[in-house]
């Protein structure tokens, strides 16, 4: 299922991001009330082109991990904390022609951009209503748990906590009244940059599989 966001929230985001280097718009995708909501950082170039979240190189790594614990693209909800591709502008000289060409590579979203999309993400989270939130990497983790949270410390473990939500009274966040179940993971791109992380990431996903299994056993008692 491709989600349709409320037009008033989309208009607010448009205003808050005016003039920023952001392009495209990739909606979240998946069923409502899923067991897992996977939360990335922002779409990359591939996602911008095909409009499917996590459909590029990181997405392929992610799907292998998802499938390793018995889920699939159809059974999980996939989104990110920013809905547009953040890019920078680089002017580089083409080695063959000697001409200067403009490139627009992906970049990490700024904290301000993550905050600009926060009301949209909050709405999406309530609408989708997943059992467990899986932030992938520091950008998603810190959006939910604040700037001191670190994926190197929190990956591969279950956490029950309030999360940050956009504070309607200001430009920052406030803590949710509700407690959420989270299971932070390294971003799948981390494996692409550092293959030595692969066994750790695979073990983290196995732990998530076990956690979900135990959660359902408790619920069925
Ligand atoms: N990285 C993300 O965080 N999300 C995507 O959809 C692709 C890459």
UniProtKB/TrEMBL annotation:
Enzyme Commission code(s) on record: 3.2.2.27
Entry annotated with the keyword Cell division: no
SUPFAM superfamilies: Uracil-DNA glycosylase-like (SSF52141)
Keywords recorded for this protein, A-Z: 4Fe-4S, DNA damage, DNA repair, Glycosidase, Hydrolase, Iron, Iron-sulfur, Metal-binding
Uracil-DNA glycosylase-like domain ranges (all copies): 27-206
SMART domains listed in its UniProt record: UDG, UreE_C
Top-rank EC class of the record's enzyme: hydrolase
Protein name in the entry: Uracil-DNA glycosylase
Record organism: Limosilactobacillus pontis
């Amino acid at each position: 299922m491709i989600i349709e966001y409320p037009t008033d929230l989309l208009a607010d985001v448009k205003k808050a991001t005016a003039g920023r280097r952001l392009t495209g718009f990739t909606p979240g995708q998946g069923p409502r009330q899923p067991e897992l909501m996977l939360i990335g950082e922002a779409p990359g170039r591939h996602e911008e082109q095909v409009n499917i979240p996590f459909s590029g190189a990181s997405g392929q790594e992610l799907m292998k991990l998802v499938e390793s614990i018995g889920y699939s693209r159809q059974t999980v909800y996939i989104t990110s904390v920013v809905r547009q591709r953040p890019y920078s502008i680089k002017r580089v000289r083409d080695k063959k022609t000697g001409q200067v060409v403009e490139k627009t590579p992906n970049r990490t979203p700024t904290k301000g951009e993550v905050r600009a999309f926060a009301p949209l993400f909050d709405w999406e989270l309530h609408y989708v209503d997943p059992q467990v939130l899986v932030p992938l990497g520091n950008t998603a983790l810190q959006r939910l748990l604040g700037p001191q949270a670190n994926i190197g410390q929190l990956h591969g473990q279950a956490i029950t906590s309030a999360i940050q939500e956009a504070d309607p009274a200001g430009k920052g966040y406030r803590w949710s009244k509700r407690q959420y179940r989270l299971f932070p993971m390294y971003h799948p791109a981390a494996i692409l940059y550092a293959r030595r992380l692969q066994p750790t990431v695979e073990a983290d996903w196995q732990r998530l599989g076990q956690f979900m299994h135990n959660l359902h056993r408790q619920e069925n008692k």
